[in-house]
Design a protein that fits this description.
By secondary structure, the protein is α+β, with helices and mostly antiparallel strands. It contains eleven helices and twelve strands.
Length: about 500
C-alpha cells in the first residue's frame, strides 16, 4: 500500500509533464507560429512545468524541515525522561503518562520502544499514546524508512538513545512521532498561495520580457531574410549586415557573405566564359557566312573563288571543331566525367617522341631538345599525358622567337616524375602569372592574334595534370623566358578525376 502511494506521488509530476508536452506539441502542429513565438512558448512551457513541480516539492520540503525542527526540540525532553526511567525515577506507568502529556500538549502521537542489548531483537512497547493505537504502520518498513505519510499523518523517527545500567546492560530507547498534516495545513496553504501568486506574476513578466528579448535576438534573421530576398543575379553587390548581428548569427552572416562572394566570383567567371565562347565562335561563323554568301553570288561560275571559299570554310570548321572539343573536355572535367585510362608506358620515350614531332614541323629555326632517359615506366593515361606535353611545348614554341630554344627535361625523384619545359621566349609578367591557367585568358591580345589559339590550351593542360594528381609550377621573367615544372605520380588510381 505504502509502495503504491510513493509510486503514485512520484509519477504525478511525470504525468503532468507528459500532458503539458503533448498539449504544446498539439498546439504547434495545429497553429502556424513564428520562430519567435515558438521559442517563447517553449520557455513558458518549461517555466510552467518547473513551477508545478516546485508547488509540490517546496511544501513537502518545508513540511519535512518543520517536522525535523519539532523533533529536535522534543528530543531533549525525551532523553531526560529515558534517563529518569533508566534510573527508576519514573516507573513504566509514569513514563507513559509523561508521554501522553506531551502528546496532548502538542497534538502529536508518540510511541516509545525499548530494545534490550540489541536493536535487532523484538522491542518492548514502553509507551504509546491513545491516538497511536488506531494507526497501522508496519514496524519493519518504518525501521527502514525515516519518514512516511499515510492517512494524513506523517510518521517521523524522532531519535534514539542508548543507556547502560550499573551491570553494564544496554537499553536502547527509540521514539517515533506521528504528526497530523492538519498541524501544518495553514502554513502549507499560505506558502502555496504565495508561490502561486509569484509564479503567475513571473509567468506574465516572462511572457512579456522574454518575448521582447527573443524578438530582439531574432531581429537580425528578419533583416538577413529581407536582404537575401533582394540579392539576385542582377544585384550581386549586396551583402548581409555583420556589424549589428551577434553570437552565432554573426558567424552565419559571415558564412553567407562568403558564400555569396564565391557565387558572385563563379558567376562572373561563367559570364566571362560565355562571352569568350561567343566571341571565339562569332569570328569563324562570320567568315563561313561571308564565304557562303560569296559562293552564292559569284562562286558557282568562278573556280578560283570556289576553291578559296572551300578552303576557308574547311579551315574555320576545323577551328570550330577544335574549340568545341576543348570546351567539351573542360565541361567533362567540371562535371567529373572526364575519363582517365591508366596504362604502363615509358614516359621518357614519349617525351622524346613529342619533341621529335615538333622538330620535324618547326620552321622558326629553333632548337628543341629532349633530356629524358628511357625506361621511366609509369602507370598513367598515355594519351592525355601526350596531349598535355604537346600543349606546353606548343605554347613554348609559339612565344619563343627564331633562333631561340626550348628544353624539355624529365627525371624521377622520390616516387615522383618531374618534367621541366623551359624556353628562351618573351616571358610572362608577374601580373599575368596568377591568371595564366584561366580559360580564354590572354595576357597580350595582339600576340594571341599573331600566334592563334583560343586561350584554352593551358586550362586543359592544368585539368589533365590535376586529374593525374599532379602539380604545376611556373617560373618566368620578361625577356628571359619561362619554365613550366610538372610533377606527376608514378601511377593514378581510378578511372575519372575532376
Amino acid at each position: 500500500m505504502i509502495k503504491k502511494i510513493f509510486l503514485s506521488i512520484f509519477m504525478l509530476p511525470v504525468r503532468w509533464i507528459k500532458g503539458i508536452r503533448d498539449f504544446v506539441i498539439h498546439i504547434f502542429k495545429s497553429v502556424h507560429l513564428s520562430m519567435r513565438r515558438k521559442i517563447t512558448f517553449d520557455y513558458l512551457a518549461i517555466y510552467i512545468v518547473v513551477s508545478l513541480i516546485s508547488l509540490i516539492a517546496v511544501p513537502l520540503v518545508f513540511l519535512s524541515f518543520e517536522i525535523a525542527n519539532e523533533a529536535d526540540s522534543i528530543n531533549t525532553t525525551f532523553n531526560q525522561l529515558f534517563v529518569a526511567h533508566k534510573n527508576e525515577t519514573y516507573t513504566d506507568a509514569e513514563l507513559e503518562f509523561k508521554v501522553n502529556q506531551l502528546s496532548d500538549s502538542q497534538n502529536v502521537s508518540y510511541q516509545v520502544l525499548l530494545y534490550k542489548d540489541n536493536i535487532k531483537k523484538e522491542p518492548e512497547y514502553l509507551a504509546s499514546t491513545d491516538k497511536f493505537m488506531e494507526l497501522d504502520y508496519p514496524r519493519q518498513v518504518f525501521d527502514s524508512i525515516n519518514t512516511m505519510i499515510k492517512n494524513q499523518l506523517i510518521a517521523k523517527k524522532i531519535g534514539s538513545v542508548g543507556l547502560y545500567d550499573k551491570d553494564n546492560n544496554l537499553s536502547i530507547y527509540v521514539v517515533r512521532g506521528f504528526y497530523p498534516i492538519d498541524l501544518f495545513k495553514s502554513e502549507i496553504v499560505s506558502l502555496a498561495v504565495i508561490m502561486l501568486v509569484f509564479y503567475s506574476v513571473g509567468l506574465l513578466f516572462m511572457s512579456m520580457i522574454g518575448g521582447a528579448r527573443v524578438k530582439k535576438v531574432l531581429n537580425p534573421i528578419f533583416y538577413m531574410t529581407k536582404t537575401a530576398e533582394q540579392i539576385s543575379i542582377s544585384n550581386m553587390d549586396m551583402r548581409l549586415d555583420v556589424e549589428t548581428t551577434k553570437y552565432e548569427l554573426k558567424d552565419l552572416a559571415i558564412t553567407l557573405n562568403e558564400m555569396i562572394d564565391r557565387l558572385d566570383k563563379d558567376y562572373g567567371k561563367q559570364k566571362r566564359f560565355v562571352s569568350d565562347v561567343s566571341h571565339e565562335l562569332r569570328t569563324p561563323i562570320s567568315i563561313i557566312n561571308g564565304y557562303a554568301s560569296m559562293l552564292e553570288r559569284w562562286g558557282k561560275k568562278d573556280e578560283e573563288i570556289l576553291d578559296e571559299s572551300i578552303k576557308a570554310i574547311r579551315a574555320e570548321s576545323i577551328n570550330m571543331q577544335h574549340l568545341v572539343e576543348n570546351l567539351l573536355t573542360l565541361v567533362r572535367s567540371d562535371n567529373q566525367t572526364l575519363k582517365y585510362e591508366p596504362v604502363a608506358f615509358d614516359i621518357g620515350k614519349l617525351i622524346c617522341e613529342v619533341v621529335k614531332e615538333f622538330n620535324m614541323v618547326n620552321i622558326k629555326n629553333q632548337y628543341i631538345t629532349c633530356d629524358a632517359r628511357e625506361n621511366i615506366i609509369v602507370q598513367l593515361d598515355e594519351a592525355k599525358i601526350k596531349q598535355t606535353l604537346r600543349i606546353f611545348i606548343d605554347n613554348a614554341v609559339k612565344y619563343t622567337p627564331s633562333n631561340g630554344g626550348v628544353q624539355v627535361k624529365c627525371y624521377p625523384l622520390n616516387d615522383l616524375i618531374y618534367i621541366h619545359i623551359k624556353d628562351t621566349g618573351i616571358g610572362i609578367s608577374k601580373q599575368d602569372l596568377p591568371f595564366l591557367f584561366e580559360r580564354f585568358y590572354r595576357s597580350d591580345e595582339s600576340r594571341t592574334k599573331q600566334t592563334g589559339g583560343h586561350g584554352l590550351g593551358l586550362s586543359i593542360a592544368k585539368v589533365m595534370i590535376i586529374g593525374h594528381k599532379g602539380k604545376i609550377k611556373v617560373k618566368s621573367r620578361i625577356g628571359k623566358g619561362s619554365e613550366f615544372i610538372i610533377t606527376l605520380p608514378n601511377r593514378i588510381e581510378g578511372t575519372s578525376a575532376s
